[in-house]
């Protein structure tokens, strides 16, 4: 048994969709959530910048004495080498690739993500490592994160952007679409409407949450309490973050702190 918290981080509010899944599967755990609201979005950043950001955030998490860190940011997962760090890291991208390989029937998978994630071809590599016969079609959707961060997930502007990006995937006869950015489940309704009911949307956070649970059980690291707590940290604006956090988690968020992440 281990009462240390689990660290979860993302470029902004998107990782809250991962946090929600973790809390559903592991309600007794305490969590430290960090959203890099000052430097969001990561999608068009250089790999050098993203590696630096990841190092700062992981150093912050180590200071908080977490027992594991969940990288709830596909762009970061696609950029860093997990072996460079001396902490237990869970990777949302790997979970998404594994889920897609299991769900596809016709072996045609679509992936939507940030420019950096798509350019890295990480999803394609991971999916083909599992099954080389799966065809993977990727589309970068750079407008999605700014739209979601502004709280406009179901607005006309969201529909307009989704139509523009998803049109090419509709011609590929895919039966599975990976939401390759943790922000995107917040636009799932819009994406579902455009892609149609025959395309299964994959939220990588679902498998990820069970991967974390399995690890904690195997290592005897579960927190024995019934209900855990969450502490929120951001690097910049917290007003939009609070609004979205309360919407996603369905509870009041008041224990939120601004941290100077660059000092780490």
Automatic annotation (TrEMBL):
It is an enzyme of class 5 (isomerase). It comes from the Bacteria. The keyword Cell wall biogenesis/degradation applies. The active site is at 73 (proton donor/acceptor), 181 (proton donor/acceptor). It catalyses: L-glutamate = D-glutamate. One of its GO terms (biological process) is regulation of cell shape. Pfam families: Asp_Glu_race. GO terms for molecular function: glutamate racemase activity. Pathway: Cell wall biogenesis; peptidoglycan biosynthesis. Substrate binds at residues 10-11, 42-43, 74-75, 182-183. Its EC number is 5.1.1.3. Keywords: Cell shape, Cell wall biogenesis/degradation, Isomerase, Peptidoglycan synthesis. HAMAP family: Glu_racemase. Belongs to the aspartate/glutamate racemases family. Provides the (R)-glutamate required for cell wall biosynthesis. This is Glutamate racemase. It comes from Thermoanaerobacter kivui (Acetogenium kivui). The gene is murI.
